[in-house]
Amino acid sequence: MPSLIPERNTAQALCSPQSARRPALLALTGVRFFAAFYVVLFHTLPFLKSRFQLNSGLEHFLSNGNLAVAFFYLLSGFILAYTYEGKVENLRDYVRYLRARFARIYPVYLLALLMILPFQLKTALVARLAVLFMVQAWNPAYPGLAGAWNYPAWSLSVEAFFYVTFPVFLIAMSKCSARTLRLVMSVFLLVSVVLHTPTMVLGVWNGTTYGLLIPLPVLRLPEFLVGVALGLLFLRSGQRPRRSVLFYLAAASAVVVLSLPIGNWVSIVMIPASYMLYELAFSDALPARLFSSGPLVLLGGASYAIYLLQYPVRAWTKLLFSYAGASFSFLGIALTPVLLTVFSIAVFRYWEEPVRKLLHPGSASSNAKN
Q: From CA 229, how far away is CA 226, in angstroms rounded?
């Protein structure tokens, strides 16, 4: 994997459609860890509220951790556009692209299902098949199916829909001028905010009823397409003055929005999130250097496993505590994020990457994990 972020004065040359392999945007890998861990904290909130008196701002911030999934969709669209623009033009390219996507996401996806299987033996066969084929979130008649087997896997079902349809949008949007792309991006961004990402309750986990923002894939499509438009605009961007201050302003705005009691209108965070993503990718200033550091790139690489394995690791940790004669109380729940992170790093290095290379020989690590 290349170790440098594109310099501004060479961005056009490095990102040309003819480039065999575009430089890695390592800062976008590093930032993934914080988004994944934000989701983990969101799922830990019921426990935190039962044990601590949380500040209202902090409670609102943690209760909005599910919106990190929207950031993942935004980031996914950006990276796919950056990686594949000009490279998926016929059926052969499409098959190669799908093979690369399968090799990227399925090894950890399957591992998570196998790990949680002993705790989900009553899951219906139809639900198992839907989850195995990653279509559990595609059926509007059975919305509860989306959370079957391994609860967080619903978002990968949505992502699978994006993967299948992405080349069509890429080809169409690649023909647009920069001005049209900005207009398209603005429209999709507005739709993402106004839709509020519809909520539905999915089911019960260990006696607790969980509700999450889980609509059909088509309703999350605007978030993904904002990322695609941003990625294409990034590829066309030439030299311009450094504006890392925009990243700081966008990040501060996002934290403020996520901490306010504004209900569904918290979806407005998509606007500063988009600015954060673009500025982080296009900058070699301090924020990009921080997120490009070795430890954060490693954690960012493991972020996919952190996200998908959070429920299996929690279930197994609880079981091990019961065998040790201890209750799964404060210590066990406090240790779970640490164990999850360490285990996910091991999975990333010794399972995810080796199996990916086996399934898709000759492939390199992606420009940023998606």
A: 5
